[in-house]
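Need residues for this backbone.
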């Protein structure tokens, strides 16, 4: 049982710019390719940073507005007009063999929406976004159930797969039947939750037969 790798979901055809690329050209690229950010690469195609719509909007927000209730704040320095001046750096990157879980955790901890994907030499080979990672939740229910039955339950020593009922609907897993010994239930639940595409896991096995039904994800 393995998670999908970043290389399985990343975008390989990457629009990129160099530090000298101008503001308007960046806007044109975002519009033309319907994207929200572009990596900025150096002469060896290594990511130096990322320019996103949020970086560009700062320039617009600093403009004078005759209709605004108050004047724009005075500029704190020279205007940012090139990718090198606009970009957020350093770029937070990931390698293609990392799992989608690792990518999601990196995005969450670094508060970024996308990651440049680099090879062993640090050169740009792709981009992975939040939307790319969410594609794992489009996995069909039958595939999820098969992985749980044929890999998770089979791999837990002492558990009889035939004794455990597995239902999956919209990525929501419900386990029923018998898991013996009961001490293995937490392990089985944890492994089921780690399967790509699983949204929640509800335990209705023998462990809760006398203590009520556990809520989804417990």
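Answer:
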């Amino acid at each position: 049982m393995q998670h999908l790798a970043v290389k399985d979901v990343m975008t390989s055809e990457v629009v990129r710019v160099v530090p000298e690329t101008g503001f308007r050209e960046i806007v044109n690229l975002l519009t033309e390719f319907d994207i929200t950010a572009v990596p900025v690469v150096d002469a060896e195609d290594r990511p130096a940073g990322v320019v996103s719509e949020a970086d560009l909007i700062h320039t617009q927000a600093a403009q004078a507005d005759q209709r605004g209730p108050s004047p724009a704040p005075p500029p704190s320095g020279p205007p940012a007009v090139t990718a090198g001046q606009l970009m957020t750096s350093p770029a937070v990157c990931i390698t293609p063999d990392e799992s989608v879980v690792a990518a999601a955790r990196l995005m969450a901890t670094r508060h970024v929406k996308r990651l440049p994907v680099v090879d062993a030499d640090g050169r740009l080979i792709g981009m992975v976004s939040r939307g790319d990672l969410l594609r794992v939740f489009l996995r069909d229910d039958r595939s999820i159930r098969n992985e749980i039955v044929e890999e998770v339950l089979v791999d837990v020593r002492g558990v009889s797969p035939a004794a455990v009922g597995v239902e999956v609907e919209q990525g929501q897993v419900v386990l029923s039947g018998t898991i013996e010994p009961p001490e293995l239930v937490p392990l089985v639940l944890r492994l089921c939750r780690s399967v790509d595409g699983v949204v929640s896991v509800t335990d209705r096995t023998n462990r809760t037969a006398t203590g009520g039904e556990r809520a989804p994800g417990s």
